[in-house]
Amino acid sequence: MRPLRVKLILPAxxxxxxxxxxxxxxxxxxxxxxxxxxxxxxxxxxxxxxxEHVEPLCLDDEPDLVIIQVYIxxxxxxxxxxxxxxxxxxxxxLGGLHVTxxxxxxxxxxxxxxxxxxxxxxxxxxxxxxxGRPVRVYRSTAGxxxxxxxxxxxxLIARRNYLVPNSLVVTRGCPQHCDFCYKDAFFxxxxxxxxxxxxHALAEIARLPGRHLYFLDDHLLGDRRFARALFAGLxxxxxxxxxxxxxxxxxxxxxxxxxxxxxxxxxxxxxETLSGGNLARSNKRQNLGLDYKAxxxxxxxxxxxxxGSFVFGMDDDDADVFRRTVDxxxxxxxxTATFHIQTPYPGTALHARLEAExxxxxxxxxxxxxxxxxxxxxxxxxxxLKDGYDWAYREFYRWSSISRAALTHRSMKHQxxxxxxxxGWKKFEPAWNTVIRARQLARMTPLLEAVLSRVTAESLAxxxxxxxxxxAPRQSLLVVR
Length: 481
Ligand code: B12
Ligand code: SF4
Known about the structure:
Structural class: alpha/beta
Bound molecules: cobalamin, iron/sulfur cluster
CATH class of the largest domain: Alpha Beta
Helix content: 25-40%
Largest sheet: 6 strands, parallel
CATH topology of the largest domain: TIM Barrel
CATH architecture of the largest domain: Alpha-Beta Barrel
Number of strands: 14
Number of domains: 2
């Protein structure tokens, strides 16, 4: 068969046209999932990869095969693109989280759909396609593995379009089962947490230029043996990295110290809620009874900046939740916070429960972006939830809040890093836009690396050395006694 002309597309989400559009957020990470799939194409296939968040998408070409990645928030756009290419005679394949959650919805717009991770199903499909007998549905089930994964096709990614071109995933899934998370639905029917081989992960890292890495893994510390070996290998590689973890993994044994020695400088932590009732109801058992202050103290002691993730609108939340959460985040020195309005993604246990209770108020997927209220909260009016969420962002990122949070750290260097990282992320939008338009994002990487430089034990100032404005944090909040 002649070589295939293949187009891989990450459609822009609908909010791309709204006033809340934040180009820097969508210029962070390249489409890793699509670059992973492209690695299975034959060497003489002609592949192009388009991320519509950072570059225009031309629909007038004539590829043989169109691969589209569908998230909930870009689903409508994805379907329009799919319909258009099918009308022009291309074979259209749809996959990703939303297709897995709602295959019947996606099926109408595709020649083939893919449920779950693509590492096994996509090469099987390519074989079928070349033999002229592709089927309609490819479902990933048994036999999931990252062994012998071909190198991600990073040559298809225009690095200059991204602030963090060196993003990677060395595991898939997560060992936990929170009821609001996409994970259980996406990995149904097979393994839901597995890792690369250590030598392969380290080889992938070695192939990445520069120093900075961003691990997009759901839970980088989830497999402790793997994480230990990974950090041991990373130690000699002179890297700086960011990643994500659950709170319990941070408190267990000395894995977080090993991560810090290997170059971990900032961590996304799923605190989610300060209410024990909320944690129990959402099956976030790994957070139950844990001392969140111990988590922030331990990370800050290692000079690791924290991006805390919080969800508003769970059933225990009342009008006070916003103030309590923001105060806690500031007093505990979180560098950045990501707030979400609880969002029941189709396929999750949360969605099933709210639907059974008759509380889902819209099926407009454009609104499932964690910024809109799409269900009836238990103890808040929908508009209170939306207003409280907006208020929380404003309040946390006020100059005075950023300063207060920065001043909770003991060393000057940590305070300064905190200040510039938080301010840089939220306060300089027009400057980012200029840099993005000038296609100069790559020039920002040394700045990012400087802000992520190490706060060593030596640079921690003695306790008596605090600036005059220093105020001791209030009594910490022990979550669920
Ligand atoms: C990085 C990331 C982002 C980045 C960039 C995404 C990008 N450029 O790809 C940014 C910051 C922009 C982002 C934004 C948002 N994100 Co996001 N993001 C992620 C994250 C952490 C990693 C994605 C990733 O690279 N995974 C690794 C790769 C290898 O896996 P993959 O992309 O899933 O691809 C595999 C399969 O899905 C499959 N596949 C995918 N497409 C196709 C197509 C075909 C044909 C085939 C065969 C296979 C296939 O094969 C691939 C290899 O196995 C995920 C969490 C996660 N672990 O996936 C959340 C996640 C995808 N995001 C999520 C959400 C909600 C959002 C936002 C709405 C959040 C917000 N409030 O703004 C926005 C909107 C995004 C949009 N464009 O619509 C949810 C999605 C929920 C859902 N049901 O769709 C997730 C799952 C987080 C979560 N736990 O809730 N996100
Ligand atoms: S710990 Fe995070 S990734 Fe894992 S199931 Fe819970 S929300 Fe999902």
